[in-house]
Amino acid sequence: MSNTNTIKQTGDGKPSPVSLRKRMMRFIVAIFLVVMILYLAPNLERIPGGIGHTITVLRESGIDTGAWYWDDVDQCFEGMDFIREKRE
Amino acid sequence: MADNDNVVTETRTPMLTQMHKTEDWWAIWLAGILLVLSLIAIFVWKPPVEELPQYRAIMNQEMETAGFRTIAYVEAESQLNSIRARNHGLTAMVSTLTARPKSWETNPIQSVYMSESDAAARRAAAAPRLEAAQERLAQARTEAQAAENAARAANFENSALNAEARAELAEWRQARDQHASARSAANFQSYNLIPGFIGLMIAMMLLFSLGARFIGINMGHFFTGFPIIFVLAVLSYVIANQATLSSIGLSYVLWGLAIGLIITNTIGVPQFLKSAGQTEFFIKTGLVLLGASILFGQIALIGIPGIFVTWVVTPIVLVVTYWFGQNVIKVPSKELNITVSSDMCVSGVSAAIASAAASRAKKEELTLAIGMSMIFVAVMIFLLPLIANLTGMHPVWAGAWLGGTVDNTGSVVAAGELIGREAMYVAATIKMIQNIMIGVIAFGVAAYWCLKVEPDRACAVGGTPMKFSAAGAFSEIWYRFPKFILGFIAASIIFSFMQTAVSIDWGQAMVSNGVLTWANGFRNWFFALAFVSIGLSINYSELKEPLRGGKPLILYVCGQTFNLLLTLFVAWLMFMVIFRDITDRLMAGA
């Protein structure tokens, strides 16, 4: 194994036992998979049985579905106003 | 227990030394610097908050006279909501500086750059929509004004005229919203986020370097590796903002982990990059900033039923799930158990991060909890609204059920949207109230771990764990307690108090739309850096260990099933039986 191969470390801090060529191939395959996911993602909206339509509705709603805390979601501020108004 | 490379460790050192040599304290100092700067900024570049009472007075007077939202009410409310510290001075600059990549559909470049010609094409495409919206708005306004005048002429005592005015005003408000959306599309501007990213990267690198020097991080490695980690964090946002993927809830957290894992497990990670990936430092600083967004004043938003669905059901589910994990399926790691349990029953990613940090869970345990949660959330967004719609559940009941069970706030709102407006707002509010529990959970987990699970956590190396005595207990708890949790709680208390100290409107203008612009903007970037760093430090083989026997999966499925059933029952009991009046009020005018 060449020196170049042993400089890089895996997550556990140990030198990788796999050759550089194999590692590069795996990297390229992984990147290709991510690019394919992104390229094909819009086609999720064509899934039959109402799922595709539901995804379209969510996309067009502008809701940040991936946001995980309330202050990132505009609808939470609207929700607070809605609740306050209704409870007044 | 976790190996030293993967967890935050403390040694018995004097408190003064700890205060300038440990991550916990530096997380507090750095977040504190940002929060103090935010306070200075909102008071130096203060919005016209003195005008707030006059708009509120108009709103109160109109509500008292008419009993519903008149044109004057809505216009005063609009003026009131436009008074925000984030539109002024340094806070406006920070808002721009911490901007994240934008949504895109087919061209990822548009996430960070939009040319003037592309922007002009979008404006031209939106122009007819704006024209139509303007016409509709003018017509709706005329009709609303006429109906309101008729109701006013009868001193708002004629119920038929009042009902007609309400309906016309609702139409007008809807037309206003559509006009605002069309105007925004027709005024679309070109953008280039790259210079801002460079500025943000330098600002964050300098900020963390303040602490890195004292903590003992190799500064050469840090300055070399940080820009790469930042670029990977930007990439995680770009991927996450693909419009379709984003709409099913796959957030930057998941992509940050995936990018890091791909690099580590293929080409490998050089030492300087590992040194720059200071996961715990980024997470703890982000958590202290998160504390500023945990506003206790929101607990009472929806009244007692909301408190029951969140603050009674959630702790029960958490304790039962943790007990089930320990005693029935025997999850090998208590840290993994509490991280999965909190993630599943409190509020997804935010609770998982807080619990993992408080219990010193391994990075792969946090990764596993978040990965499972995101996959289940993507299913629940579709499944739960489908069940609610097919069974004809009441929107308020369904909203409370979603808010109490779906893991992340954005996903809760998306699932609510599939049922209806009322369900969405109730779900969002229930989730916000549940979010507040993160502070209590983090404090409780940290206390339980340092007193019960790892009583010798912070004792001297080789020393015998100390027995607690009434006299020594407080100082021991103080010594052993993870200090960043105290920063997190302190931020929550200070800003909860500040938000309600003057008035709700002042709090909205200065805290929610001022201080939180800083806290939220930086916090999300810190977490993006942290998740890329976690991915960069995990081997695939390390993920297999906690997954052995499928126990975390069984824990999640059993816990979530219990959560879904208990929340369904308690939400029904609270909103449909005991506090039916609140439900009816929420549905009034629907």
Topology at a glance:
The complex is a heterodimer of chains A (88) and B (590).
Chain A: H1 3-7, H2 20-40, H3 51-61, H4 74-87
Chain B: H1 15-21, H2 23-44, H3 52-66, H4 71-82, H5 89-97, E1 113-114, H6 116-153, H7 159-186, E2 191-192, H8 194-215, H9 219-240, H10 243-247, H11 252-265, H12 271-276, H13 279-292, H14 304-327, H15 334-347, H16 349-359, H17 363-391, H18 395-405, H19 409-417, H20 421-453, H21 470-480, H22 483-501, H23 504-535, H24 540-547, H25 551-578, H26 580-587
Antiparallel strand pairs in B: 1-2
Structure description:
The complex is a heterodimer of chains A (88) and B (590). Chain A has 4 helices and no strands. Chain A is an all-alpha fold and 88 residues long. Chain A has one domain (3-87). Chain A starts with a helix and ends with a helix. Residues 1-7 of chain A have low confidence and may be disordered. With 590 residues, chain B is mostly helical. Chain B has a domain at 231-535 and 549-587. Chain B has a two-stranded antiparallel sheet with strand order 1-2. The longest helix of chain B has 38 residues, at 116-153. The model of chain B is unreliable at 1-5 and 458-463 (pLDDT under 50).
Helix-strand topology string of chain B: HHHHHEHHEHHHHHHHHHHHHHHHHHHH
Strand residue percentage of chain B:
under 5%
Helix content of chain A: 55-70%
Tally of contiguous helical segments of chain A: 4
Largest sheet descriptor of chain B: 2 strands, antiparallel
Multimeric state = heterodimer
| Number of E-type strands of chain B | 2
Largest two-chain interface: A-B, 52 and 76 residues
Helix content of chain B: over 70%
The count of β-strands of chain A is 0
End-to-end separation of chain A in angstroms reads: 74 Å
Number of structurally distinct domains of chain A: 1
